[in-house]
From TrEMBL:
<feature type="repeat" description="ANK">
    <location>
        <begin position="690"/>
        <end position="722"/>
    </location>
</feature>
<feature type="domain" description="Arf-GAP">
    <location>
        <begin position="427"/>
        <end position="549"/>
    </location>
</feature>
<comment type="function">
    <text>GTPase-activating protein for the ADP ribosylation factor family.</text>
</comment>
<dbReference type="Pfam" id="PF00169">
    <property type="entry name" value="PH"/>
</dbReference>
<feature type="region of interest" description="Disordered">
    <location>
        <begin position="547"/>
        <end position="638"/>
    </location>
</feature>
<dbReference type="InterPro" id="IPR001849">
    <property type="entry name" value="PH_domain"/>
</dbReference>
<keyword id="KW-0862">Zinc</keyword>
<dbReference type="InterPro" id="IPR002110">
    <property type="entry name" value="Ankyrin_rpt"/>
</dbReference>
<keyword id="KW-0479">Metal-binding</keyword>
<dbReference type="InterPro" id="IPR027267">
    <property type="entry name" value="AH/BAR_dom_sf"/>
</dbReference>
<dbReference type="GO" id="GO:0005096">
    <property type="term" value="F:GTPase activator activity"/>
</dbReference>
<dbReference type="GO" id="GO:0010008">
    <property type="term" value="C:endosome membrane"/>
</dbReference>
<dbReference type="GO" id="GO:0005886">
    <property type="term" value="C:plasma membrane"/>
</dbReference>
<keyword id="KW-1003">Cell membrane</keyword>
<dbReference type="Pfam" id="PF12796">
    <property type="entry name" value="Ank_2"/>
</dbReference>
<dbReference type="GO" id="GO:0008270">
    <property type="term" value="F:zinc ion binding"/>
</dbReference>
<dbReference type="InterPro" id="IPR038508">
    <property type="entry name" value="ArfGAP_dom_sf"/>
</dbReference>
Length: 829
């Protein structure tokens, strides 16, 4: 009911007016309470709607994921995708509905309560106050004594002013009451009508959406009946196949028992089984013959590892593309056991304890395998023999080879791990590095007594700057502790070759010219971080050389390399290196190092000779080790071509990459660091020099530290030149044992072959370099041991670790002992 107040009545201030005012005030107070409650309920409804929408979105995402998982079933994928889209549209409609509810109910009614009802309350306060003042003035006027004229006049004046003020305020109050009573109807109805129209739109949109979806739903409903019938039929067929196979399995078990009781002799047993019909059925159950995919035969076999323990591991073998390969898991890339079956033979193995064993022998390795039964062994042997015959028939065809790039046979230590390394640690490494001029203070902020280092830049850092360097990423800076981490000898020598002074001359060459302030100890971290990023990431302070300066630098480095080469040619022959000392109990005799993969088959009698693996009879400590016999040179392996003499050709253009190229050969680490600061690509390829890289040139220069510097700056240890030779090839050809050891530790692929099909091991054998043969053989053995022990194995054999540690120490601290072999000469007898 709308309550209005008469303006004439309010001037009289009659009891009727007071009763009306009291009724209006109670009504407005109740209205405010109801509106507040409605707004709170609206807020709760909106929050619940948002939570509902969030849960709905997760449900729709689940439908989408199920559709993506069902990509092979077009009906399920398309239907679920359409349903998810429709439900997502409904979520969008719900969101619009809740937004409209917030605008129409919450916002609009809150505005009405806060504005209009607040004005009413303020007007009521003024009205109550002036009413009290008027009542007081009337009482004072009535009490004024007649004989005191001045009190009478004062009371009369106050009463007159108070009545005038009362009339003005009461009229405003009545106006506010009437306006509020008039507006409440429109505001409430407008708000609710807007809210109801939002619902109407929501349901209309939902109806239209599902009307479009209805034909698809009817179509799926019709298909669903047929799908139920087909599923029931498939279930019956599968149950029938299951029953048939189960009966065959029982029959096989009974027949297996009867065969063992009746035919104890192995050969008679084999002959009997080969004529058995059930034997053929069993083979078909376990193996597939799929010539279309190039797979002649596949199945599980036990493989004997070539480590000292001769462990057996179950692997999935297959004969495909004239190769014998195996996998640990189906997703793993296959490991090639035999690359070309034409060069192999297969035979039974009856002289070992295990049953059903056979051996595949190639010119470079042999592989011992075990089948589950005699008939399966015969099947595998026959499959290998047939594949050999087929390969000879098709030897004119270019068969596809398996991808060996991802083979697990890397033959090296993990580059990130340093197990059992006898390296410097703590104060000894700290003292050596801080002894370099400029290294006693942080390279970037000058903080004294630094305890951290960037190993690819060759600088020392305080703890704050080291944290900033670490945040740059390892492609800019690799941070290590000088006191907590272990330091390999070659890495420590790298730190001593560079230092803060050298690097700051490069990276801060233009700092004073540009007016940049170098941070000081105690400066805010954000200022130091900005400076370090400008210095190493943006290289803002590096002085870019002119074309003439770059040309002069490159020519000077090439001449420096020639001087080094010419001076080294006249050095007297070096004495043979001592044999690395082995730990007590380590077995590195021919029995331990020798593996099934390191033998050489003699084509005449099938025997295999092992290449010598013991370097010499000199020891690092007291004790005698027998000298190894001369290395046999297989006549089947043609000698690799000799290394080309390095000649400086006038290039088409001079670049930082060319500077890095010649600086690597000239063993000048400061010039290499300068070239990298000028933007040289660490794997830059010199197309005029057989596509050689700076790392290959570092091998030619003979410096272990130069190679370490390039590797720490992300040089590719397996990048090949035009002859297909990587750094490991070149180090082997030049007889640089320390570099071979370094590359194997950094992940070099020792199975890579050059254009003459020669691996580093082939070259080392032809050069009769026992040290490098030892390293390559041990790396291969260590890899096979880790492979046999599974993915959670540790670094490998302790013998391998011992020998590599000794070679590392010798290469860094006494390199002359390793350089007993002259450069590889293919014409040498």
């Amino acid at each position: 009911m709308k309550i209005t107040v008469d303006f004439e009545e309010c001037l009289k201030d009659s009891p009727r007016f007071r009763a009306t005012i009291e009724e209006v005030e109670g009504d407005v107070c109740e209205l405010e309470s109801k509106l507040d409650k409605l707004v709170k309920l609206c807020i709760g409804m909106i929050d619940a709607g948002k939570a509902y929408n969030a849960a709905n979105k997760q449900f729709v995402n689940g439908i989408r994921e199920l559709a993506q998982q069902s990509t092979k079933d077009e009906v399920i994928e398309s239907s679920l995708t359409k349903f998810a889209e429709s439900l997502q549209e409904m979520i969008n409609y719900h969101t619009i509905l809740f937004d409209q509810a917030q605008r129409s109910i919450k916002t609009q009614l809150q505005t009405f309560v806060k504005d209009d009802i607040r004005k009413f309350k303020e007007a009521k306060k003024q009205f109550d106050k002036v009413s009290e003042e008027k009542e007081a003035a009337l009482i004072k006027n009535a009490q004024a004594p007649r004989n005191k004229q001045h009190e009478v006049e004062e009371a009369t004046n106050i009463l007159t002013a108070t009545r005038k003020c009362f009339r003005h305020i009461v009229l405003d109050y009545v106006l506010q009451i009437n306006v509020l009573q008039s507006k409440r109807r429109s505001e409430i109805l407008k708000s609710m009508l807007s809210f109801m129209y939002a619902h109407l739109t929501f349901f209309h949109q939902g109806y239209d959406l599902f009307s479009e979806l209805q034909p698809l739903m009817k179509q799926l409903g019709g298909q669903l009946d047929q799908l139920v019938v087909d599923a029931a039929k498939e279930k019956r067929d599968m149950e029938q196949k299951h029953s048939t196979i189960q009966q065959k399995s029982v029959k096989a078990a009974l027949q297996e028992v009867s065969e063992q009781d009746i035919i104890p002799d192995c050969r008679d047993f084999c002959a009997w089984r080969s004529t058995s019909d059930f034997s053929n059925d069993d083979t078909k159950l376990e193996y597939n013959v799929d010539a279309d995919n190039g797979i002649a035969m596949e199945g599980y076999l036990f493989k004997r590892a070539s480590n000292a323990f001769k462990t057996w591991n179950r692997r999935w073998f297959s004969i495909q593309n004239n190769q014998l390969v195996y996998q640990k898991k189906f997703k793993d890339n296959p490991t090639v056991v035999v690359e070309d079956l034409r060069l192999c033979t297969v035979k039974h193995c009856e002289d070992i304890e295990r049953r059903f064993c056979f051996e595949v022998v190639s010119p470079t390795k042999s592989c011992m395998m075990q089948a589950d039964s005699e008939k399966l062994r015969q099947a595998w042997i026959k499959a290998v023999q047939n594949s050999i015959a087929t390969a000879f028939r098709n030897k004119g065809d270019d068969g596809e080879k398996l991808d060996r790039k991802s083979s697990t046979s890397t033959g090296s230590l993990d580059s990130g791990g340093e197990p059992k390394e006898r390296s410097l640690k703590g104060e000894s490494a700290l003292q050596k590095v801080l002894a370099i001029p400029g290294n006693t203070c942080c390279c970037d902020c000058g903080q004294p007594d630094p305890r951290w280092a960037s190993i690819n830049l060759g600088i020392t850092l305080c703890i704050q700057c080291s944290g900033i360097h670490r945040s740059l990423g390892v492609h800019f800076s690799k941070v290590r502790s000088l006191t907590l981490d272990t330091w390999e000898p070659e890495l420590l020598k790298l730190m001593c070759e560079l230092g803060n002074g050298v690097i700051n001359q490069i990276y801060e060459a233009r700092r004073e010219e540009l007016g940049a302030r170098k941070p000081q100890p105690g400066d805010p971290r954000h200022e130091v971080e900005a400076y370090i990023k400008a210095k190493y990431v943006d290289r803002r302070f590096v002085r870019r050389p002119s074309d003439e300066e770059l040309r002069n630098k490159v020519v000077s480095l090439s001449k420096q390399e020639k001087r080094l080469s010419s001076s080294s040619e006249h050095l007297p022959p070096r004495p043979p290196p001592p044999t690395p000392k082995l730990r007590p109990g380590s077995n590195v005799s021919g029995q331990s190092v020798k593996s099934a993969d390191s033998g050489i088959q003699n084509s005449a009698d099938g025997s295999r000779e092992m290449l010598a693996t013991t370097p010499s009879n000199n020891s690092l400590a007291d004790g005698d080790v027998a000298e190894s016999p001369p290395m046999p040179m297989p006549a089947t392996l043609p000698p690799p071509s000799p290394c080309k003499e390095m000649v400086f050709y006038e290039p088409k253009e001079y670049s930082p990459g060319l500077q890095l190229y010649w600086a690597s050969c000239a063993r000048s680490l400061p010039d290499m660091a300068e070239a990298l600061a000028h933007g040289a690509e660490v794997n830059w390829v010199n197309t005029d020099e057989d596509k050689r890289t700076p790392l290959i040139m570092a091998v030619q220069g003979g410096s272990l530290v130069t190679c370490e510097f390039l590797l720490q700056n992300a040089a590719n240890v397996n990048q090949q030149d035009a002859q297909g030779r990587g750094p490991l090839h070149h180090a082997t050809m030049l007889g640089h044992t320390g570099q071979v050891c370094l590359f194997l530790k950094r992940g070099a692929n020792q199975n890579a072959a050059d254009i003459d099909e020669k691996t580093p091991l082939t070259i080392a054998v032809e050069a009769a370099n026992a040290d490098i043969v030892t390293l390559l053989r041990l790396a291969k053995m260590n890899e096979e041991m880790r492979e046999a022990e599974g993915p959670y194995s540790q670094s490998g054999d302790e013998t391998y670790q011992d020998i590599f540690q000794d070679f590392t120490q010798m290469a860094s601290n006494d390199p002359d002992k390793l350089n007993r072999y002259q450069q590889y000469d293919p014409q040498r007898p």
